[in-house]
Amino acid sequence: MDVAMEPKEPEGSKPRPLPSAAQLRAELHEAVQRLSFAELHSSTQQLGGPLSSLPRFLQDGLAAASAQRMRAHLGMREYSRAAHALQGGPSPGKGLYSEPWALFFKSYALYLAGEKRREEDAAEVSDPAESSRVCNTELKALEEDLSAFYQERKLDGLGLYVYGIVLKGLELKEDARRVLLESVHAFPCNWSAWLDIISISADLDDIDNEGCEGVRLPAHWMSSFFEAALHMELQRNESARDLYVMLRASFPESPYIASQIATCFYNLRNFDASQAAFEELRRRDPYRLSSLDTFSNILFVKEQAAALSHLARQAVKIDKYTPEACIIIGNYYSLKGEHEKAVVYFRRALALNRHFTPAWILMGHEFMEMKNTAAAIDAYRTAVTINRRDYRAWYGLGQTYELLSLHFYALFYYRRAMSLRPDDARMWCAMAQCYDHMDRKAEALKCYEKAHRCGDRERMALPRLARLHRDHGDRRQAAAYYSQMLEQSGHARVANVAAGWVCLM
User: Fold this and answer.
1) Are 477 and 365 part of one and the same domain?
2) Which of 137, 278, 437, 463 has a Cα at 20 to 30 A from 427?
3) 343: pLDDT confidence band, cut at 50, 70 and 90?
């Protein structure tokens, strides 16, 4: 006999009673704050949705919740979604924001969304020169909206920063610098704004020994960091080092200051002091990769293969998918003479960051070693497009054209490098060689003399000065230069005899 039986509900299947809507709001709000503080962006996103869906009359903390949810979207690189999380932002017909933070978040999210699309579009363009011309499509609309807020003085320090970088992206550099200076006056601790001011000021080339013309810096300690970084950007490395040494007295444990001092020594070609500074920095902060690509350049120049190999292994353990780690590994393979492998790692660095100028320059060096001058020129030109104040890219272009015996073009690029490093003897020697090949002996002599006055660590200038004076018939001056050569080499007693012999020739 069949008996109809009521199905039993399994234990634990009954819906658990939910707390009141007010309790839900309070719990969700606290959870979102804690998760956001812990940088758990995915969980913040997950809870931010239910919080924003509560009835409006229960959303007393909606603004804070929206901000946390937007931050979570930004952390997950979902920039368009982050901009959409706050309705009624800087869009035509939707009114003005009453909260400066909301205006900043939405504007910055739209800017980042445009940058992300620009990077994606640039990655699909094979020609490096063409890829550098791909634009952020959000800039014009953002400029129109933010300019209205700017005219009405509704932008705070961070809002001014976004407006400044939008103007910079539109190549309105003077306006961008003016707005960014307003930004650092309103909020001096935004280091990103200071860096953009440095970049724009260097491009405008209106900086004298006292600083930017017409620039009024805030009376704030961050101005000292700005001045030091600006001097470093302009290759005034001795004054930059002195400024950083003074700053170190107030911030003795700062790894940033330590790395900047080490880089100043590197730029001054004091490789021993730079290596010691980087090694001390690594002892204090062993998991820091920033600026270690410069340290690997020192080990490469000093041909310390074992130390460079150890540094490469450590970089791989810390984070091998960073541009700095790829540069270190590429330098190691280059030192071993495996130039194809070095190029692979420099390309990997550029896949991670297409605007990482050192990778383009080092890849150009590798193509030069491989006698692939066309690829070297492309790499150096891309580096120049990204950073017109990096003398190494201009110098590399000069070397490439000199290798092709196109001395007039080489001279143009060497001059650009010299204008950025006027106290570097290598730039003057390179220009002198071009003048010599072009049979412009007088200009060659002047350049070699300038190189000699600049120090000439490679000792290239003296023998060429002696030869040019001898060929010109000025034996006495040639003898003087030959004597200096002998004195430098430690043969002082032979110098006087050699000088007299040259005079009798």
Assistant:
1) no
2) 278
3) very high
Provide φ and ψ at 133, rounded to 5°: -95, 0
Q: Containing domain of residue 106, as a range?
A: 77-203
82 plus 174 within the same structural domain:
yes
Domain tally, the chain: 5
- Tens-place pLDDT, residues 88-126: 444 433 443 557 888 888 899 999 999 999 988 888 877
DSSP secondary structure letter of residue 343: H
Query: Looking at the chain, how many residues does it have?
Result: 505
DSSP secondary structure string, 136-203?
Answer: -TTHHHHHHHHHHHHHTT---HHHHHHHHHHHHHTT-HHHHHHHHHHHHHH-TT-HHHHHHHHHHHHH
Say what the pTM is: 0.83
The answer to whether 106 touches 88, Cβ cutoff 8 Å, is no
- The sign one gets for the Cα dihedral 221, 227, 232, 237 is negative
Check if the beta carbon of residue 216 is closer than 8 Å to that of residue 197: no
The Cα 106–Cα 116 span in angstroms is 15
